[in-house]
Amino acid sequence: MSELKNITLGVCGSIAAHKAIDLASLLTKSGFIVNVILTADAEEFVRPLPFSTLTRHPVVRSLYDKNKVPTMHVNIADSTDLLLIAPATANTIAKLACGIADDPLSCTALAVNPETPVLLAPAMNGKMWNHPATQSNVGLLRDRGAQFIGPDKGMLSCGYEGVGRLWPVEGVFHKVLEVLKVNKV
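Given the sequence above, the corresponding structure tokens read:
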């Protein structure tokens, strides 16, 4: 990689959130600067410590952290080369489609330069993924330039077989390389 690339990794509240730890590790080991934003729902599944340890950067968890500047989401958005949301839940996809900005991740997403690539790796129950509202939101985000990888098919945590699994971490990593137009690092 000729220059260091900044990736903002948004992690949403899905059982697949634990896979984002491996993704953050792989990205960091490959030379990317990774800043992680955890939604409140994500913290029901994972804690900030593994992310901050692996990326060597503090994890953003709130818009109101007294130790950060109030416009921290704008600063992150200005410096990112890629907004990667993995796992992306139906809730976050809906927020992004509707322009709702009520947490650090959705505020950062709205502040990202329109030229900055956005990559979403959905993970949710197959019925949620296939619901017309979710598909409409995905279509709207694609029309605005967002890219998607997945979801994958297989056994879901709810016990159903079908589409909804987070795309394999290695596959998401390779899609990041493709989107950022960097050679294998």
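The chain has a mean pLDDT of 92. Try to locate this feature in the token string yourself.
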